[in-house]
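Need residues for this backbone.
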C-alpha cells in the first residue's frame, strides 16, 4: 500500500484538515449551511529576497472545483504576481468548498513554489538550457506535477517519462553512472557504454556522455570526443561534491581541452547540487544545466485563503480577519507594476488580471497548454529583475 490519495479522494474532500469537517457540522447545525462567501487567495509576504512569484496550479484547481456551485476568478496560470495581490477568488456557498480548502491551498502553494524557483533559475541562465532533474527527490506520486510546475516555470525540459508524456513533450536526459560501471565490470572498458549507447539510441536522442565516472573530467571528455566524433553532442559533468573543487575551473579546463583538439562543437552540461549561486558562477562557461533538488525543495510561496466578503440578505458585506484587507478586489497590470482596486471601481490603468474561469460550476474559459503557459512566463521574465 502506498500512502497517497487518489483523485476521487481529493475531489471528495478526504484530504482536508479535520477542523474543516467540524466547521461544516457546526454551520449546518446552526442553520448557516447556505451562507455565501467570497474567499481570496493571496501571499502576504514572499520568501526573503524574492520580489515576485509565479502563479501556477490553476489547471488542477479548476478540476477540483468543476461541477461545484461556485464561481472561480483567477489570474491566468503563469502570471507573475507580488505581495498582497489577490491571485484567485472563490465565490459561492462556503460549505460547497470548505473541505476542499486544504487541497486547493496545497495545489497552489506547491505548484507556485516550484514554478517560482524554476523561473528564478531560468532568469539567471537566460538562453542557456535548464533541465529539471529533481524527480528523484520527490515521492513518485507527485513527480508528474513537479515536472509540470518546473516546465511551465521556465525549465526547458523534464526527465521523467510520465511527466513529459502528460505535457506532450519529449523527456530529456543523458545516462547514469550505473551504465559505465556495469560495462567496466562486465567487459573491462567503461567507454564501451558510450559506443553501445550510440548504437542503441534513436537518432533523435542527443549523444551526451557522462564524463566523470572513472577518469579526470578533461580526459573522459576528450576520450568521448575521439570515440564518437561528430556524433557527440555534448558531455555532462556531474562531479560528486566531495571531489568538486572549483567547478568553474573544471568546466574551463574541459572546454579548453575540447577546443584545443578541434571539438568546439561539443557542448558542456553541468549537474549535481546546483542552485542560484553556483549557476551565477557557471552560466557563462557551460552550455546547459541540470537542476534538481533546488527546484524540488524551493522556498515556500505561502499562499493563504481568507474570506473577504459574506453575503447577508442579498448584499455582499466586506469582512475579514485583522491584518487582512476586506472586500472583493481586482488587480490591474500597469506596465511593470500591479495596482489593486475594489471590484467594480474604474480601471486605473492597464488590463485586469482576475477573470472568471468557472461560472456556477461550469468551466467558461479554455485552459492553455503547458507550452503556452511557459511562453507566457518567459515573456514576463524579460520584464523583471531578480
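Answer:
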Amino acid at each position: 500500500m502506498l500512502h497517497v490519495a487518489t483523485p476521487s479522494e481529493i475531489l471528495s474532500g478526504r484530504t482536508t484538515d479535520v477542523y474543516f469537517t467540524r466547521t461544516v457540522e457546526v454551520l449546518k447545525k446552526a442553520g448557516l449551511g447556505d451562507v455565501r462567501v467570497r474567499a481570496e487567495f493571496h501571499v502576504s509576504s514572499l520568501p526573503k529576497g524574492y520580489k515576485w512569484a509565479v502563479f501556477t496550479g490553476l489547471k488542477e484547481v479548476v478540476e477540483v472545483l468543476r461541477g461545484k456551485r461556485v464561481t472561480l476568478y483567477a489570474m491566468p496560470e503563469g502570471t507573475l504576481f507580488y505581495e498582497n495581490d489577490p491571485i484567485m477568488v472563490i465565490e459561492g456557498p462556503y460549505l460547497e468548498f470548505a473541505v476542499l480548502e486544504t487541497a486547493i491551498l496545497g495545489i497552489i502553494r506547491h505548484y507556485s513554489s516550484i514554478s517560482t524557483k524554476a523561473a528564478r533559475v531560468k532568469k539567471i541562465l537566460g538562453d542557456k538550457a535548464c533541465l529539471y532533474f529533481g524527480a528523484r527527490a520527490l515521492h513518485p506520486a507527485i513527480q508528474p506535477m513537479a515536472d509540470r510546475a518546473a516546465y511551465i516555470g521556465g525549465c526547458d525540459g523534464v526527465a521523467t517519462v510520465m511527466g513529459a508524456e502528460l505535457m506532450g513533450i519529449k523527456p530529456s536526459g543523458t545516462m547514469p553512472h550505473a551504465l559505465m560501471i556495469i560495462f567496466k565490470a562486465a567487459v573491462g572498458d567503461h567507454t564501451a557504454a558510450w559506443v553501445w549507447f550510440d548504437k542503441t539510441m534513436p537518432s533523435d536522442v542527443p549523444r551526451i556522455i557522462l564524463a566523470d565516472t572513472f577518469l579526470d573530467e578533461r580526459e573522459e571528455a576528450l576520450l568521448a570526443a575521439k570515440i564518437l566524433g561528430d556524433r557527440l553532442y555534448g558531455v555532462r559533468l556531474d562531479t560528486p561534491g566531495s571531489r568538486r573543487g572549483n567547478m568553474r575551473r573544471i568546466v574551463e579546463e574541459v572546454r579548453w581541452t575540447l577546443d584545443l583538439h578541434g571539438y568546439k562543437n561539443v557542448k558542456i552540461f553541468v549537474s549535481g547540487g546546483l542552485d542560484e549561486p553556483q549557476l551565477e558562477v557557471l552560466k557563462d562557461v557551460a552550455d546547459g544545466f541540470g537542476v534538481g533538488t533546488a527546484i524540488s525543495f524551493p522556498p515556500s510561496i505561502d499562499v493563504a485563503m481568507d474570506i473577504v466578503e459574506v453575503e447577508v440578505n442579498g448584499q455582499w458585506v466586506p469582512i475579514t480577519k485583522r491584518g487582512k484587507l476586506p472586500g472583493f478586489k481586482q488587480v490591474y497590470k500597469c506596465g511593470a507594476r500591479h495596482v489593486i482596486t475594489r471590484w467594480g471601481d474604474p480601471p486605473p490603468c492597464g488590463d485586469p488580471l482576475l477573470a472568471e474561469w468557472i461560472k456556477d460550476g461550469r468551466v467558461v474559459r479554455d485552459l492553455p497548454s503547458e507550452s503556452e503557459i511557459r511562453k507566457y512566463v518567459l515573456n514576463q521574465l524579460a520584464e523583471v529583475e531578480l
